[in-house]
Design brief:
414 residues, Rossmann fold, Alpha-Beta Plaits, 16 strands, binds nicotinamide-adenine-dinucleotide, binds (2R)-2-hydroxypentanedioic acid, D-isomer_DH_CS, oxidoreductase, serine biosynthesis, D-isomer_DH_CS1
């Protein structure tokens, strides 16, 4: 049998657009998989440019800066998948993407160790008063004093959000002799000697250092406000390397200004600059006892390299094979290889009778189905059908599938 050609998506026609300085390892992965149209930008694009570019892209890679709103996604007529080359996916309207038939992938683990290492280092720096001492030395002031400077050993670290990062922070902190308590909305296996706190307020009242590791959700938005900061121990420290929307900055400024908190380390901000260079504004600027970093918790070469490979592999697998395993917004289907068959992907609104209409299309062509895989979410269904169709049949079948009312995306692989 002659080798089957791809009918609707030859790889050389697939345009991959990577924004925000995604690691070169992603470009290498796409190239190694046979993709040739790969464009990588070091920055995020302004919204008007993004709308223009997303209309042409088949695969889009972003980090935390690019906002994929419903309005932007409405322009994404050709887009088959989005890769968030990071953990957070709050920058994407996941429901709108799903309803447009676009699976979104991320890298849930690859930068977690980098964040955990930074946070533990920040806890040590804050407890020693190093941010002020560093600032004073830069101004030529010698302040050799132990006042306000403490070992972390024996002190209490309170972790809010005991997930992939929070648990690693706890393990590393215990290795330094800290007592670890945590608060999470889910029941979590406590690692080492960590203990769940009786609740958020209890954690805030007990911890010498509080560190935030929650995702951005409606419940975590502005979760640390003046009331919660007021519950923290006088002289305690706050670390936020989660999302800028979790802490009310004006409230933190007030708590620091009043001397209620001894210091803070903040890596994420409610508004972050679009690109590197001047333009970072924050009321926290100018506090010697505050460590400010430009959202670099996960920015190590090791993490970025791994993320590039991991997310590119997920996008390539979906593009080549249709697997949506680990998509964050989409019915998950883990698919075998499909040598010897053509593979049709049909993404549709999850309404009664859809599967029978899909099967009727194949029935009309008197084609036997080699394999069928279906998963649904409340609003969206994803069915994959393997059939031994020739190229002309495949093109006709794809058109007929695309014409079924309620179809969101219809593709044929090879
Ligand atoms: N600064 C950075 O560069 C950087 C890097 C990576 C991740 N992050 C941020 O860190 C967040 C956490 O990452 P992760 O890998 O640990 O995620 P994760 O999903 O493994 O853990 C998050 C934990 O928070 C808990 N949680 C959710 N809502 C909560 C609430 N209201 N109160 C208490 N707990 C709650 C969840 O149950 C979960 O256990 C990410 O969502 C991302 O926004 C930042
Ligand atoms: O790389 C980024 O832009 C985001 C890093 C981090 O916040 C994440 O969500 O993984």
């Amino acid at each position: 049998m002659p080798p089957k050609k791809k009918t609707s998506f030859p790889k050389q026609d697939i345009r991959v657009l990577l924004l925000e300085g995604i690691s070169a390892s992603a470009v290498e992965a796409f190239r190694a998989a046979g993709y040739t149209q790969i464009e990588a930008h070091p920055k995020a694009l302004p919204e008007d440019k993004l709308k223009e570019r997303i209309a042409q892209a088949h695969i889009l890679g972003i980090r935390s800066r690019t906002q994929l709103t419903a309005e932007v996604l409405a322009e994404a007529r050709r887009l088959i998948a989005v890769g968030c080359f990071c953990i957070g996916t709050n920058q994407v309207d996941l429901d709108a993407a799903e309803l447009a038939g676009i699976p979104v992938f991320n890298a849930p683990y690859s930068n977690t160790r980098s964040v955990a290492e930074l946070v533990v280092a920040q806890a040590v720096m804050l407890m020693r008063g190093i941010p002020e001492k560093n600032a004073k030395c830069h101004r030529g002031i010698w302040d050799k004093s132990a006042a306000g400077s403490h070992e972390v050993r024996g002190k209490t670290l309170g972790i809010i959000g005991y997930g992939h990062i929070g648990t690693q922070v706890g393990v590393l902190a215990e290795a330094l002799g800290m007592r670890v308590i945590f608060h999470d909305i889910q029941t979590k296996l406590a690692l080492g000697n960590a203990q769940p706190a009786a609740g958020l307020d209890d954690l805030l009242a007990c911890a010498d250092v509080v560190t935030l590791h929650v995702p951005e959700t409606p419940a975590t938005q502005w979760m640390i406000d003046s009331e919660k900061l007021g519950l923290m121990k006088p002289g305690a420290h706050l670390i936020n390397a989660s999302r800028g929307s979790v802490v009310v900055i004006d409230a933190l400024v007030a708590a620091l200004g009043a001397g209620h908190l001894a210091g803070a380390a903040v890596d994420v901000f409610p508004v972050e600059p679009e690109a590197n260079g001047p333009g970072f504004e924050s009321r926290l600027r100018g506090f010697d006892n505050v460590l400010l970093t430009p959202h670099v918790g996960g920015s190590t070469l090791e993490a970025q390299d791994n993320i590039g490979t991991e997310v590119a592999a997920k996008l390539i697998r979906y593009s080549d094979n249709g697997s949506t395993l680990s998509a964050v917004n989409f019915p998950e289907v883990a698919l075998p290889e499909h040598a010897g068959s053509r593979r049709f992907l049909h993404i549709h609104r999850n309404v009664p009778g859809m599967l029978s209409q899909v099967n009727e299309v194949f029935g009309r062509h008197a084609l036997n189905i080699d394999g069928q895989f279906l998963r649904t979410h409340p609003k969206v269904g994803y069915v994959v059908i393997d059939v031994a169709a020739d190229e002309a049949q495949a093109a006709a079948l794809r058109e007929e599938l695309a014409a079924i009312p309620g179809t969101l995306r219809a593709r044929v692989l090879y």
